[in-house]
Each structure stands twice: as C-alpha cells, then as structure tokens.
Write a structure and sequence with these properties.
Immunoglobulin-like, 5-stranded antiparallel beta sheet, elongated
Amino acid sequence: MRTVGGAEADLAHHGHLSLWDGRVAVWLVSENHGPSNLSQATVRLAFSERMTGGLELPPACLWSSDRVVSCRTGALRAAGGVGELALDLRTAGLPDELTVDISTAWRDGVADRNPVNDQHRVLVLATGDPYVF
C-alpha cells in the first residue's frame, strides 16, 4: 500500500445492524485514532443477501453491486475525528438472517497498522434486535 509521506492513521468502524421484515438498519461510526489526519476514506458494507434496487442512499454512498454499498467517511481528524452513517435498506426477500462484512476499502494512501478494528463480519438475525460490532 502506498503511504503519503509515511502518514499513519488508525481507522476504526463501530455501530449496530438490525434486520426485520426484510428491512436492514445500519448505524455506523468511523473514527480516526491517529496519529495523522485522514482526508478521506471509504467504508464497504457487503451483504450476504441481495438488496432491492432503487433505494435512496445518503449522498456519500453508492451501490457497488446489489449486495455492496460503499460510503465516503469525509475528513477525519487525528485522535478524535468521527463520521456517522445511517442506512435504511431492504432485502430482495425475507431472510431469517444475513451477514454483513464491514471493511475499509480505501484510506487515501495512509497506512493503518491496526486494521483489526476496521474489519468486521456480523451475523444479523431477523429479530429487529441491534447487533453491535
């Protein structure tokens, strides 16, 4: 991975997911624990189930496929920069469960020596309960 002048930022994603009646709610917080500022990053959410088309996404997000949403975090200051994202999505069917892989797809060439806290796989049951990651 190319780094910008040896810059390093510890990007972390946390939040929760819920599934009920074919609806998927996502609340995601991206944080930069530093030591360098991060001008932009892209978080990728990959769903095990196909989503229906035509869903409104926030302006910072786009559909990469019918199972993948990619979203820009915006600028994140070192040791405190926080970006929030909320999505209300629909599955193509009515699954009893699904998995969601959350990961950083791009971080503007800045190294992250602690990638564990920005990669998650979450099993979400169709109970409407929030599954925290």
